[in-house]
Design brief:
The chain has about 270 residues and is an alpha/beta fold. About 45% of the residues lie in helices and about 20% in strands. Strands 6-2-1-7-8-10-9 form a 7-stranded mixed beta sheet. A 3-stranded antiparallel beta sheet has the order 3-5-4. Strand 4 (about 175-180) and strand 5 (about 180-185) form a beta hairpin. Helix 2 (about 15-25) runs parallel beside helix 4 (about 55-60) and helix 4 (about 55-60) crosses helix 5 (about 65-75). The longest helix has 19 residues, at about 85-105. It is globular. The N and C termini lie far apart (about 40 Å). Bound molecules: S-adenosylmethionine. S-adenosylmethionine (SAM) binds near residues 75 and 114.
Length: about 270
């Protein structure tokens, strides 16, 4: 299947040059992604009637809205508060209380790796408040895309984005702005530190208790995924958890060093 798809979109030598220049411009190594990226690049070029990679690169380099479009198309920023809600209630009701018991304190560090426009780290911040995590700024949020980070820092959302939040949390954690939009309250914002980061290339902190990396690795090749999961293992404290997206089973988790702790939940052995 991969072979058939790849040969439908044969990559000419100029694509190699395009990838190199894009990495210089954005820090994103397109080689780390699967073949769909070439196909997606090709589709965007066709959409704009561009015949050469050189022409497309020059457009991206000089027109910020075209760079934005390329990144949007590449990374797909779709997200929402408390996405796949049952996992969130498991974190609140089982994982965090279990850690308190085990550690004998409530100082936890949580990380949303690939945080997009902020819904995931702010959901973590709300859980941190609800479960009384005592770390002053317990949530680290990182993304490669500076545009989504800027949007996250504003913290303004359509009400449909918070549809999975329990009703009583809406007035508690959000200010209604009218026009079907809300803004996360300062108390929630203050719990999150945003950081621009390329998960593939950059160094990670250590001693983290829970890492969420959900719906991020979808376009990464298997080698890139393995490297990333190994980095997550190192970043966790022994006994810490990695939560993946609702379709992102890590089949080789044992080989990487994780133990399975439930569905889409992996633990660094103690
Ligand atoms: C679909 S969103 C997922 C948001 C959230 N985790 C969720 O599950 O709702 C994927 C995010 O991963 C980010 N991303 C993709 N590749 C990345 C990389 N190499 N380093 C950091 N972030 C990356 C994208 O910019 C995008 O914001």
């Amino acid at each position: 299947m991969a072979h058939q798809e790849a040969s439908d979109y044969p990559a000419p030598p100029e694509y190699g040059e395009f990838k190199k220049k894009m990495e210089k411009l954005t820090g994103i190594d397109l080689n780390a992604y699967k073949y769909q990226i070439h196909r997606r690049t090709h589709m965007l070029m066709q959409r704009w009637g561009m015949k050469t990679y050189e022409e497309y690169y020059r457009t991206i380099e000089t027109r910020p809205e075209k760079l934005r479009e390329f990144l949007d198309y590449l990374t797909i920023n779709v997200t929402e508060f408390f996405r796949n809600a049952s996992k969130w209630w498991e974190i609140r009701d089982t994982i965090i209380p279990g850690m308190y018991k085990e550690l004998g304190h409530q100082r936890l560090r949580l990380w949303s790796a690939g945080c997009s426009t902020g819904e995931e780290p702010y959901s973590l911040a709300i859980l941190a408040i609800e479960t009384k995590i005592s770390t002053p700024q317990p949530v680290l949020a990182a993304d490669i895309d500076t545009g989504v980070i800027a949007k996250a820092q504003e913290g303004i959302y359509r009400t449909q984005q918070i549809a999975s939040a329990p009703k009583e949390w809406v007035p508690r954690y959000f200010t209604a702005l009218g026009n079907d939009t809300v803004q996360v309250k300062k108390e929630v914002k203050d719990k999150v530190k945003f950081k621009h980061m390329n998960l593939i290339k950059d160094k990670f902190d250590s001693g983290i208790d829970i890492i969420l990396c959900r719906n991020v690795v979808i376009y990464f090749g298997q080698e890139t995924k393995n490297t990333l999961y190994r980095k997550f293992l190192e970043a966790l404290r022994p006994g810490g958890y990695l939560v993946t997206g609702a379709t992102e089973q890590i089949f080789n988790h044992r080989e990487i060093g994780f133990e399975s702790a439930g569905s889409f939940l992996y633990r660094r052995p103690k």
